[in-house]
Amino acid sequence: MQVISFMAIKGGVGKTTMAFQFAKFLQTQDQKVLMIDLDAQKSLTGTFENEHFNFSGKPTIADVLEKPSSGLIETQVQDNIAIIPSTSNLEEVADRLASKPNRELLLFMWFVKNAQELNQKYDYIIIDLPPAWNLLSKNGVAVADKIISPMEPSRFGYESHTKVLQSVGTLQDEVVDPVSGKSYITANVFFLGNRIKHNTNSSHEFLSALKHIDNVIGVIPEKELVNASMLAKEGILEYATQNDKLHEQEPFLKLLSDVFSEIQKQGND
């Protein structure tokens, strides 16, 4: 089982989109996926809601954080995809938990408690982190095997990789087992260039800058197909198939498949 957290220090870089589309890619491979929404904005949660279904009355990630000794409480939403949804008061819950001991390891403790069952049920756990460095992000980083951080073509987008590395590195130094001296934070960090427009100076400069960054896992161009599939709450391949766009979008679909395959492979050595 792999645990992969999608992390960004700012919003609007495609973090939730990539987390959702990666899960849908895994679904096409018959992989069993648990998604966890740690973002109070509930964007990932909303991709699985419609006029016939919502998560009202269902357990949420707040229940896990407030009681790490609880069992599995996910909701099955599609074939091979289950989710622990977010809740609109998640930031208030995080504020209440800020004084708890081991507050950065609440999700980690739940993982340890349910490790055997999680390993039996799921091939991947995908976590959507909030677009800020806070207690919720720290919990999502603490359980991750790898972190995928999308970046966009802007000065801040390029500089965000430094902030991500600094944040994860500081947490790694802080959250240490007192007996062994080893850090609980073991995730490898990878970066993903996203929403690249090939006809703009900012994108050309951004692509040049990416050459100087380690662990860039791929580059994804700006495509209306991505936006359309998210509006339809569908995987990109599923949307392209239903709308007769398979042939015209074949190069992009192949590129995206290659990037997602790299996410699967990287850090597994």
Automatic annotation (TrEMBL):
InterPro entries: AAA_dom, DNA_Partitioning_ATPase, P-loop_NTPase. Gene3D superfamilies: P-loop containing nucleotide triphosphate hydrolases (3.40.50.300). It comes from the Bacteria. Pfam families: AAA_31 (PF13614). Residues 1-174 form the AAA domain. This is Chromosome partitioning protein ParA. The lineage of its organism: Bacteria, Bacillati, Bacillota, Bacilli, Lactobacillales.
